[in-house]
Amino acid sequence: MPVPQTLDELRVSLRQSVDALQRRQASEIPEQLIDRLVDLDWLEWHGGNLRLTTTGANIHRQEIVRVRALAESSSGSSITPNLTEATIATPNYQYEKRQRELAKKKKKEEKAQRKAAGSPPAPATETPDGEKPGPA
Question: Are 56 and 42 in contact (CB under 8 A)?
């Protein structure tokens, strides 16, 4: 199977490759295509596994939308897009964790400000004539 050269062919190949990866059938993807998609920064090797990069995920979503539009415009089409990735929202745990950390830090700072504003001034460590007070 020759490696696609045009962007449209590569986009279709990316969609098919993602489908194979979701089925855990990476062996169905030709090695030259994998190399081409990695060179384009659409796929990356991660711990011995292939995965989509952010760029690849964006292109894949665009391709899914394009295929969906084609399927809607020509009813009865045999193209059935895999819409699972495009329709499933995944939580961004790092963002949520950072927001919790920021809220915790803000609360701690507010507490420190309340404590500093509400507490009596700290006792002087020196007497007015410049000497440190001795034991009483």
Answer: yes
